[in-house]
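tool_call predict_complex ligand=adenosine monophosphate
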Amino acid sequence: MDSLLCAVTVLKILVINTGSSSIKYQLLDMKEQQVLVSGLAEKIGETTSILTHKKILANKKNRTKIKEERICNHRDGLIQITGLLVDPEYGAIRDKSEISAIGHRIVHGGEAFISPTIITEKVIEAIKKNIPLAPLHNSPNLTGIEVAMSIFPNSRHAAVFDTAFHQTIPPKAFLYALPYDLYKKERIRRYGFHGTSHSYVAERCADYLNRPLKELNLITIHLGNGASIAAVKNGECIDTSMGMTPLAGLVMGTRCGDLDPAIPLFLADHLKMSLKEIDRLLNKESGLKGICGANDMREVIEKKNKGDNLAKTAMEIYCYRIKKYIGAYFAVLGDLDALIFTAGIGENAPDIRKGCCSGLIRLGIEIDNTKNYQPGKGLREISPSAGEVKVLIIPTNEELQIALETRKVTACWSKGSGFAENPNL
Ligand code: AMP
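tool_result ok
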């Protein structure tokens, strides 16, 4: 079947991101690439759960419904969400059969998944095999798949992995200098995360520069609550800062990022901390919060502006770490077309962008102060017109990217066609 013809049939896509006690969702119209409804079911399984549902209207007068009643489990949650999707007042479709495809965000694809894929029994098995690599994420992600497949048996289901974009990273960048058997037997290696965001902004950059992505060398910097940076050579990721887990790399809201690996040993040996306590310290009590007591960058900036020295130090450490990675990735890329800032902090914090790029003019990286501080939305160029490297702010849109990937992979697939079969499975 002609692929264009198939693509036209995939009109409405539901994107689902299932956490251990939550379901985040968006229903998108793919013809206009517009969000029709979005929402979040939280505290699933607790005495009182919260379902916040928003119908997006063209005049921006969105219609919001908040339900505060118990949602026993994910199945119950998705049934309630489906009820709102078809609700005459808050919904956007008449019948659930209008949803042609469902895109599932899956955190860990391990080495099995180098691209988004149609969900089959084999795929479910492979995602299960990756549970040990991301137990907090892959298990609920699988629950989401099971529940959605039972509620939407006639829709096509696709899995889009946070790790897939980074599967082009070569062994010299993904192997740790540990006994090789730990890689072969336990799959300990760098995987990288936020792949959906890095790939989305890389593609938008290519559109903006009107050049094929495969000709571009980019550094993409995702600075949200979690943060990571990726080196993209000829359109393919060749290195990234997160590692086997999302704890590595940049300083984050509450995560420490790169650390001397002997420090956890010291904490255990000297302070007699348990593994659980160390895990909590590194993941929840470190990063910006660990240094200055605030994990939200807006709060850190406010504290710094009021003269708080630790907040100032936290921002300096934050930018310094990013700058070191920019230098390293420039070195491995050899040449750079564009540097891209994205996500909450990357899109909204000019002081941070300035801090990361100051003193890099010898690398061709420069920021125009006026453009950097000009408030704005959408894709913006903040390098001087004559700058060698384009410095861009590109708002990320992971849900849209999941929907686009889902459309691509589901458009021409039919059961038994073998289309999109993953050769690694
Ligand atoms: P995200 O995970 O992409 O939603 O990003 C969350 C982070 O973005 C938080 O640290 C917020 O403080 C930060 N953020 C959002 N808006 C701003 C802003 N106007 N200035 C500085 N940081 C911001």
